[in-house]
């Protein structure tokens, strides 16, 4: 079969990974920010409690990482503390020690570091680490903070980001680390066919994490066919679970999407 020009360019600019490097990605489904929410016991998102609950159910873990004011990798989604804690203000203005003493609303724990999470997981389930970046800020210090924690960690893990600069950084400076490009066709690096392709070529990812609302997608299907696994987010219902099962290799799920995963199993 004759390959299209785009397929040839994809193979050249963003080669598919060795299948042995990424085969574990499709072997699990992943609890989005840990197994959190009222339906799963009331644990706060991205808490060690939510991650332990995911481990207990045999699910992989997807979590969010950003950098503290003193350069440590911390598990937290929002740029501001307001929604998830009783404190206010930017996460980046506080040190790791200060963040580690802030209770998460609705649970018994505090904001964890990436190191504490990996110590808890200890290789029992795979971990997808979404690195949160700002487009107007450089990423090397953020990526380095994550890489320092990952050094010596033997369990299955990957980094991923909407920002293609993150995957590009790891491809050049930590090529053994599995890296993913997060995409949504309505926003960010995934919006617009040309922008989508440029992001892919710059990131050179090992897998895609694709917005389930955009599936089926010709772009995602083409990348999957040539050897890039596709994980899809955020699966929140049985309908989305069925879509994920048909068009992706793994689901990143929460709420009713987790329940439907267990029914399917």
Can you describe what's shown?
The structure is a single chain. The protein is globular, with a radius of gyration of 18 Å. The protein is an alpha/beta fold. The protein is 35% helix and 17% strand. The mean pLDDT is 94. Strands 1-2-4-5-6-7-8-9 form an eight-stranded parallel beta barrel, surrounded by eight helices. The chain is built from eleven helices and nine strands. It has one domain (19-264): Phosphatidylinositol (PI) phosphodiesterase (TIM Barrel).
Please identify the structural class as seen in this structure. alpha/beta
Question: In order across it, which strands form the biggest sheet?
Answer: 1-2-4-5-6-7-8-9
Percent helix among the residues? 25-40%
- Spell out the helices and strands N to C: HHEHEEHHEHEHEHEHEHEH
CATH architecture classification name: Alpha-Beta Barrel
Number of helices: 11
Report the CATH C-level class.
Alpha Beta
Set out the fold topology.
Elements: H1 5-13, H2 19-22, E1 30-32, H3 48-56, E2 60-67, E3 73-75, H4 96-99, H5 114-121, E4 127-131, H6 140-150, E5 157-161, H7 164-173, E6 178-183, H8 193-203, E7 207-211, H9 218-225, E8 230-235, H10 238-247, E9 250-253, H11 256-264
Parallel strand pairs: 1-2, 1-9, 2-4, 4-5, 5-6, 6-7, 7-8, 8-9
Antiparallel strand pairs: 2-3
Helix pairs in contact: 3-5, 7-8
